[in-house]
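Sequence and fold
=================
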Amino acid sequence: MKHLLTTTLLLAFAAQPATNDLDLDFRGSQFRETVLGYVGPNAKKYIKAEQEGLRITIPGAEKSLPQMGISSKLAVHGDFEITLSYEMIGSEKPTSGYGAGLNLTIFADTPEKDSATIARRTHPKQGEVYATNRAFKTPNGEDKNNTAMFPTTATKGKLRFVRGGSVLVFSAAEPSNETFNELRRVEFVDQPLKLVRVTGDTGKSASGVDFRILSLQIHSRELSPSTTASTLSGSWTWVIIFALAIPIVVLASYFGWRFYRKRLDAD
């Protein structure tokens, strides 16, 4: 069933013209379910489209809640520039974990599951920071992380990834200065990205997180349907259900009619 859903989704995208740019403005209560899916169990409960932007609120709890957010349904090929505009509404300072806040994460389509994250977090020891991570899995399945944090006081701004060849640059811009400042650069991979995600993250703590996504922009050599099945919802769910149901109904009607005719001829 999962393969049928993925195949139907790919066919639907194939009918649309090719593109190399995706500009999503979430202000004005906009949310495009044709190119976005939800991340996390019961994620819609924590995500709300508002006039000011897409709000993600994960409340404080006795135990850590999983990441909640949105994910693109497009693969990103070649060199790219991915920019997230955000606004922090509030986040409780955690007493444990790796920091509560928001993540912009990219996942490459590789056996090693290469990924990178640039985040705006409140860290239990270092306070308000930009947090970055370059991660992958070793052949024996061990997670490897290369992290670095940078202090900030900004509660709104932009986070950006830029890839040229196999080099990935992490950068951030603050309202007081629209210029992007490079935080770090790392050796990455040049294979396509299978997912781009924006999530609220309690950082393995009981602290809450509250922020808005104002816009998400993806510019690359090519965008295509991702073969990774995201959580399907809204209009796409019904499109797929009808796409699968119509041929079944037609076949059932045809064979039912033939059976009925045979019964008539036999009588």
The first strand starts at residue 19 and ends at 25.
